[in-house]
Amino acid sequence: MVRTRTRKVKSTGRFGPRYGATIRKRVRKIEELSKADHRCPQCRQYTVRKLSIGIWKCRKCGYTFVGGAWQPVTDAGKRGLRITKQLAEQATKE
Predict the structure, then answer these.
(1) Contacts of 79 (CB under 8 A, 6+ apart)
(2) Cβ-based neighbour number of residue 56 at 10 Å
(3) Considering the entire predicted model, what is its pTM?
(4) Residues 62 and 77 reside in one and the same domain
(5) Structural domain span for residue 30
(6) Which of 21-30's residues contact partners 24+ apart within 8 Å by CB, and which partners?
(7) How far apart are the first and last CA of the chain?
């Protein structure tokens, strides 16, 4: 009989003692981040799920969009949106 030991290691308990603690911690962090509740940029509901690497879909409104591999909006993406908004504001002022 195989006992699962997942109190501390959570989803990476399936690896057992293999691969090393640091790698298992990284995998756990990535899995928790990608499986967490994410907000849809269109309908603002927490119903976004990952279809494949970088492709996300809202289960409520059906909105499909691209994002990061592990989360729908990355830090670089946020920076890009902020810069785009600033440039758009400057263009409207002129």
Answers:
(1) none
(2) 22
(3) 0.72
(4) yes
(5) 1-35
(6) 30/70
(7) 73
